Amino acid sequence: MKEQLELIKQNALAALAAAETPAALEELRVKFLGKKGELTAVLKMMGKLSAEERPVVGQMANAVRAEIETKLEERKTAIHAAVLEAKLAAEAIDVTIPGETVTVGHQHPMNQVLQEIKDIFVGMGYTVVDGPEVEFASYNFTRLNIEEGHPSRDRSDTFYFDSEDEVLLRTQTSSMQIRFMETHKPPLCMLAPGRVFRKDEADATHSPMFHQIEGLVVAENITMGDLKGALITIMNKIYGHNAQVRFRPHHFPFTEPSCEMDMQCHKCHGTGEIDGTVCSTCHGEGWIELLGAGMVHPEVLRNCGIDPDVYSGFAFGIGLERTAMGRLKINDLRLIFDNDVRFLNQF
Ligand code: PHE
Description:
about 40% helix; binds phenylalanine; single chain; two-stranded antiparallel sheet; 11 strands; seven-stranded mixed beta sheet; 12 helices; about 20% strand; alpha+beta; BirA Bifunctional Protein, domain 2
């Protein structure tokens, strides 16, 4: 039996020394030390030994078990360390390798200008609001004092959704004047940028979808002077001091009196021509129309439950693309919508 024990010990130690993985170690533990293992099998036969031999063999068996256990622990620690070492080596990060460059986009030039404009108006106390692009004719036209049959309601100009001409793609952000006055009472200062839609052919200054920035101020004693002051202030902030703008009388059903404001063409500087040919940006006008404006019509105030004998106000609708064209010296409106990165990367 002693020889048997010695053999088990030799085999176990050799096998343990050769084991490479935790799973192999576990297999060996079961094989040699487990309940059905080789050592246990030998111990089971101890009953057959004489009384003198039993303690001697018992002691030896215990010593063999202890030795195998020690070796097992030793190998466990070593294999564990090796596994960890391998993992660390495999997952090592070389921080000196240059990183992959990720191309990051930037804000669209039109949004850059919109952000500038919003910042300026927020600084003057305006609240910026958002509204629906699919709109009721009552907000887009009727309550803005635009009567049935008015040319701007024509199906050739407006995208309608229904045969009754009651639901449409808004043709102007002025619908937001009504929506805001419905929910806010004066004094109020509102700015409502957004998309508008008209059946326009696209050319250097027109597109069937474009952006307007509606402004509305209603309080006591608001005058046309306040309107001009606000608009000139903002133009000077956008285009730099002494922005070249002009006001022309105009007509809108929802403002009285009404006007339009033009900016001097940034391409021909107001001359209307470049090297003897008509300027393509302003079609030879020398000026580019930027916005419509005026004093809010008393009927519109009344339509929103505001007493025109107590309150007055002004409103304006700025064309965002054209403002951006002047601000960033872009000569053709269509470039703004083409989204050609060679163009966009310039801003
Ligand atoms: N909504 C008008 C347009 O689209 C512009 C405007 C806005 C005019 C506010 C007066 C007051 O042309």
